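Q: Here's a chain of 324 amino acids. Please give me its 3D structure as tokens.
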Amino acid sequence: MSQCAVVIESDLNAAVLGTAIEWAVRLSSGAASEEERREFANWRAADLLHQRAWERVEQQLRTFEAVRERGGTVARKALSTPGSSRRKMIQGSFSALAVMGVVGYLVRCSGIADVLSADVTTDIGRRQLIMLADGSAMTLDAHSAVNIDFNAQVRSIRLLRGQLFVRVAPDAGRPLVVATRDGTATALGTAFCVNLSDEGSRVAVTHSKVGLRSVSGDALVVGAGTVAFMQSDHVRLLESQDADAEVTWVNGYITAVNRPLSEVVAALRPYLPGFVTLSPDAARLRVTGLFPLDDPDTTIRQIAQTLRVTVTYHTDYLIRIAAR
């Protein structure tokens, strides 16, 4: 079994491991009560399988710490390839890119003019913590971009690409608003994450409440621990999703509890210098585990070892994952 990813095919073991991961996320969030800690201790002591699952999760968390300490060496090595070599690699992969299709490439590059003029952008493979003028703290995920407009009347952040997590300093006279092409998320003093994808905007609230309003005017108040999905014409709750699990990327890992492989790969893409494509049957495979972001090549190798998939490297800049 891998040391960087946990995937258990047995339904029973997957369920137990999923519960252990949920406990890890809840306990590490800093918001767990004493009663919850007692509930966790009782759960762990109730069954030997629970204890084994918890030990496995602790092992993964130690692995993430080791990855961070060595500074994401694998990811940085890919990013630091000399310019001429990278150009040759890109030129050599041109025919492979054609396999993906021009349409997919254009979707990824849409809105490039806005991104180029953004106030803050992050590189592939690099998260950034930004202290805002009002005392709020914003973490910007890799390959993300925002515009920031803070003045005497408003506190506005426009997410142009990627995702952010913000701990909002209270200011009753100036609610902080995060806007995307789909609508707005408004908060006074809270902590929440906004993830912008081709499909829409995903909002996870870890503290207090956030008011969502789509471009069409559909509105919803999202409470702590809740995840919602917003498109330009509507907003809806994602009942089975846990907000704390949505924001573990801030600490360098993806939390997946019975989630499709497509979501894990989507979270990895900002940490890879090229493209990753998934066949439809591979995209639907269910995954439970903890996956490090700062060493994405290793994560992909571990996925190949633990799921029934084949990973093909056309070049370092084009990876295809298909079910076998």
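Q: Can you summarize the key feature?
A: The longest helix spans residues 48-69.
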